[in-house]
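Structure ticket #2291
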Amino acid sequence: MPGSDLRVDAKLFSGYSGAEGSFDEVFSDKGELRPAWRRFIDATEGLPRAEFGRRWEQAQRLLQQNSLAYPDPRDPRARRHPWELDAFPLVIQAEEWREVAAALKQRATLLDMVLQDLLGPQRLIREGHLPAEVVFRHPGFLLPYCRPDAAPQQVLHVYGADVARSPDGRWWVLDDRCESPSGAGFALQNRIAMSRMLPDVIHECRVERLAPYFISFQEHLARLAPDRERARVVWLSQLAGSANYFEDAFLARYLGYTLAEAGDLAVRQNKLYLKTLAGLSPVDVLMRRPNSENCDPLELSDASSMGVAGLLQSLRSRHAAIANGLGSGLLESPIFMAFLPRLAETLLSEPLKMPNVATWWCGDPKSRKYVLSRVSELAIRPAYRRRGVNDSRLLELSRSELTAMIEAHPTAYVAQERVRRSTAPVWSGQDVTHSYISLRAFAVSSGDSFEVMPGGLARVSATLGPLDMSLLEGERSKDTWVLSEGPVSSVTLLTAPDEPLALRRGGVDLPSRAAEHFFWLGRQSVRAETLGKLIRAVALRLTSEQDAERIPELQLLIRVLAELGQIEPGYVVDEIKVQMPALEKLLPAAVFDEKTPGTLRATVANLAQLAATVRDLLSLDTWRIIREMNDEFQPTASDDGFLDMLVKVDGLLAGLAALTGQFAEGMTRTHAWRFLDFGRRLERTLQASQLIRAVVAEGGGTDAAALESLLEVSDSLMTYRSRYYSRFQLGAVLDLLMTDETNPRSMAFQLVECTSHAAQLPRESVVPGQMTEERLAASLLHLIRRVDPLAIARAYESGDEEPLDSLLTTIDTSLPKLSDAVSHHYFFHSGPAQRLARD
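Resolution: structure written out below.
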């Protein structure tokens, strides 16, 4: 171990050494500390190893709380946060980074020139600089991308490059990311976490900030818009649950863009629009995540659900701009690396400043002969990259199998030199070991050049296996520090304090999809709460010291469980002692059954899924509550599943109570909150009606025990007892649960709120009178206000069930109509019918 001058050697780097045959980022071959790391070592002097580990654990928790890469909540096998940050950064000197940045600017410029030509005049093909079959065999080369007669237009706006060092310390480009490079959000989140972990160290090391890159990002997208002053930029993401969705939500929020899915957008008369509550709002710039072929089902892949029909025609008409241009992913295929060195000389009149890994296309006879002579030493890859297709199977083939494969289809494969990546220290929590490094760097167009992020996303792996398949490859990531030579200027995305702002009230520009998801988020939260309280009421009675046969309401509550679809009706038998053993085994399995719609676990999963789709519009605390509920409300392998279920249901109800508080006190009264609360009020009315029907109208539960359990599940027992003590009578119960407008759990209270929401939702000013949803809500409120609960109770107790049944039936049939009216009015935007043929 080198360096008597390393004062913290024993604290953090004790026992560390790089891998033989690889360039080590920290120590030279002679064991000397590299200059960039000397500054880091000096800055961490005096920081004990235990304190360093404690801070790292805090940084990990921060990432988990922010859930940048949180997996699809619909997948119970992927509950853990997949993104892990290493405690040590990758440290690079400013002088060295200037060379890297210059090379990446040159490469991005070159790639954009190549793309403009391939999708335009195709002079490179006609003049023999690129073989025609290299381009025309490309499965991603589609004619709709091409505009041979149009004026030159930039295609590559945002660029990513996977780079690594060879054993001699030289940087090489391993892969180009031209489609829609991901990872900038991960890099930013890593920096945020590290700034919490080592704020003084970052300041003392003079680490370059990432904000200038994102400012250039914003400025460039604004320049793409026809009206730069009021440009509307929409970030088009893939569906919620996709690998990059949380990065998209994070960046859209950070940059101030509207996050949208394809269903949020529409093309009308060749113009691109965002579907909002106020109608169709024009979109100026689209920052896309989906692959090019998935962007327009009308002209491209009709099997994709991520596209916007008519998008290509809108782009051709120049009513909207897009980054990156459709077809930009062509150059992600490694086949082009075989030609880029020559293309640089042709188009730029200079060699590449950073070479890409040596590449041979097997379609060239001379290259194929060379490849076959060294097939065991080279990495064989498909010539054309297909996103989402894992080609690691080629690593498992023998020399003879690879040879036969290449000879059978030579144009379909390339061979590349293997790069032995550099090593850097990683923190295991106690020890420091080495791992292999790959860096994804980012560049965004800026004027006539590109702005390179000072740093990037470093990924580490314990082995030398390929890291180019996806960002989730590898074991963890590192923050990348570029050390400034002087003081670091304070740059921020925040608006200058002296810049005047026009006061605004938000709301009507809420995307219709987001409004719909908020509406159903509200409904699912109330549904989960009702089911949780019902299941807890049953479980508490089943675990009571009292004999089950002496709990008269238990049989009724079990019947209600069956009525609400939580257990099979066959378990509702007359003898409670017969069903007790079966229920104790059945109920936990039924509660945690995620595959059956309507179960409590499925409802919680739906709640988390809906929240994920509007993650960019929720506060961090709200999202944490939902994420933790979804994480915690999972089955365990405990022998006592019934008691564990009861504990987890209790925890879930506490989380739902916290969520209700966040909804009530943590959301601005925009239309997002209004739709959420509308959904909650509508669902609570429906749940109250169903509970009264199941317990009283169909269950015949009019005795004190049954009425008490009904009030318990309805969360109104304390209020009832404060008024009537323990005198349970049907009329008083119906009054409290149905007509009492001072009870926040009553039907009347919910319908007052529904009527208010319906009246305050956006509407077309030219439409006279009330909208359908207003009339339905007002009609239901009028109905419930005319109810005489004592008269209904007397009739029911005297054998006349019709008044109660008729009332509940009217409510049960009217509420879905109200929900449908809201959906049809605000969540769907259909264009006018067009005649496709003459009469």
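Closing remark: The chain has 28 helices and 18 strands.
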